[in-house]
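ok so for the tutorial part 2 we go from a plain amino acid sequence to predicted structure tokens. step 1 is just haveing the sequence, like this:
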Amino acid sequence: ETRERDLQRETRERDLQIKRLERASTVLHPCAAQVRAIPEIDVPAHTLSWARAYPDIVVPCAFVAAGAASATDSPALDPSSETTYYVVERVVNATVAVFPDAWFHIGGDEVRSQCWDGDAALMAWAKTKGLTSIRDLFSHFLARVVDVVRARGKRVVVWQDARVPPRGTTTWGP
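step 2 — the prediction. this is what the tokens look like for a chain of 174 residues:
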């Protein structure tokens, strides 16, 4: 089972490398035209594609999906899973390798609090970490992701409706 999981991970990484090369041309054209191409990896919500590739890094939020504005609103990444941060870091690394801009957008909007609040295991984990509210949990998650992005020399941007914009980030929106 471990070997199979390793092979699946290697296949995903190889596919990501191919996609990175394909996207390089998409990034180089705007740069040549003096237009900025700033990547957005929207977390912790809007992660349906993440759930399909890595189902163990999301909180399913099945009861929320029916009322979501779009299918990608649910599920949300699992802030209690170290695997979540491993995958986020790998995605950030791959994205930074393609996008030369100093800015990096991490989204941070439209997290369904019912998703995390309705997951008993997640909330039990949160209590062990002294995170007593969804706001605390969200802050914990964003701080970890911001650290990953900043460690790569990027300035972090979040949407204006991020629950708790991390200190030193820029917010965008109307």
